[in-house]
Amino acid sequence: MKCSTGDKVRFLNDTGGGTVVGFTSKTIAIVRDSDGFDIPAPISELVVVSENNEKKIIDEYTTKAVETYRKSDVSKPNRTKENTQENIDITADINNKITAEEEDNDRIEFEIALGFLPVSNDSPANSDLQIYMINDSSYRMFYTIGKYKQSHIEPIKNGIMESDCKEFVAILSKKEIAEMPVFQINFILFKNRDYMAQAVQQIDFHLNMAKFLNNKTFTENDFFEQNAFIHILASSRKMLENYINSLSDSDIKKSQKNKNDNFRKQTQSARKSEIEEIDLHIESLIDKKDNLSNGEILKLQIDRFATSLNLGISAHTRQMVFIHGTGNGKLKHEIRKLLDTQYAGKVRYQDASFKEYGYGATMVFIK
Q: Is 300 exposed, middle or buried (0-12, 13-18, 19+ CB in 10 A)?
């Protein structure tokens, strides 16, 4: 997998990802995650997240749901009044139809709300109310809204909404609001690309008739040109705040410790992947050695050592471990003699980790 600085990537063998901010070698990239931590990771274990797949199609179920929605009458208001219909933004309702070919972005923030607008601006407290569903997010949304009727739910509206839009639901009189104390709203958030899943929501919203009898309830807002009452049903920001507030000091310390431990393990793994190992045992170099003399075997091993080291120098490999075994010490002696003469000034060397290789390997650092 090729990647460049600035690419957004995900980890193949772990959760999370981030943005490539640099490279430590040809095989190791530095990935900066959402918390600002720089994590070294093997390029072979990274997946570049595509940003321009404009032809990607959502799954068959969603496509059928879109077509059903477009052909149905669910976009029409539940009630029609000649003296109020002109106040309904029909154009906005039409523009809220989903466009399956449009590529969604990768933001994960969301805020889902109900909007209540007085039909009459002159006397909001005495007016019928227009109800809107608001999807203030980068997600598309399938929703249903209904009212409790004894032990059943009587549907009011359902549909599929694009991101960052609002959709007309119904016009309700004050009498209807008084007789319908609870809305039930269900919604599912999704995208037409790989996305971070959010929990399916089922929310009971209790209407407070007294609230709508107060003109001060209806205020300026970000969704409508006229004053309205906006009730937030679900918000990623609020969910995060609630989660943080629920954490104890020990939870926070444990989380930080886990993050530091994971970072340390990833760093150690990345450092280990930067070390190239070359096994010089004759069994690793050829299939049959029975007809070779000790001198011929030693020559093959030395040739392999020199070839590998020259390639490592050309490729700017930082560290190489040559596994020569213990034996009679002849191969180790010849290797170190070459390092002291032919490669003097180009490299330095020492015994490799005793824990991993015992006395049978030499670590070479390329300058």
A: middle
Asked if 74 and 132 sit in the same domain, the reply is: yes
Highest-pLDDT range among 52-61, 90-99, 165-174? 165-174
Residues 170 and 233 occupy one common structural domain: yes
Identify which of 32, 187, 50 has the alpha carbon closest to the alpha carbon of residue 105. Answer: 50
Closest CA to 262 of 37, 104, 64, 99: 37
Distance, in Å, from the CA atom of 169 to the CA atom of 56, rounded to the nearest integer, reads: 30
pLDDT band per the 50, 70, 90 thresholds, residue 167: very high
Give the total number of structural domains in the chain.
Answer: 3
User: Domain range spanning residue 19?
Assistant: 1-49
Q: What is the CATH number of the domain that holds 2?
A: 2.30.30.30
Q: What is the pLDDT of residue 214?
A: 83
Of 231, 218, 105, 205, the C-alpha closest to 164 is: 105
Tell me how far apart the alpha carbons of residues 367 and 364 are, in angstroms, rounded to a whole number.
10
Same domain, 147 and 295: no
For residue 89, the one-letter residue type is D
User: Do residues 214 and 313 share a domain?
Assistant: no
Residue 98 or residue 43, greater confidence: 43
Two structure tokens written together for 349? 């060397």
The pLDDT confidence band at residue 81, using thresholds 50, 70 and 90, is very low
Q: Is the confidence at residue 95, as pLDDT, over 80?
A: no
Residue 253, in any domain of the structure: no
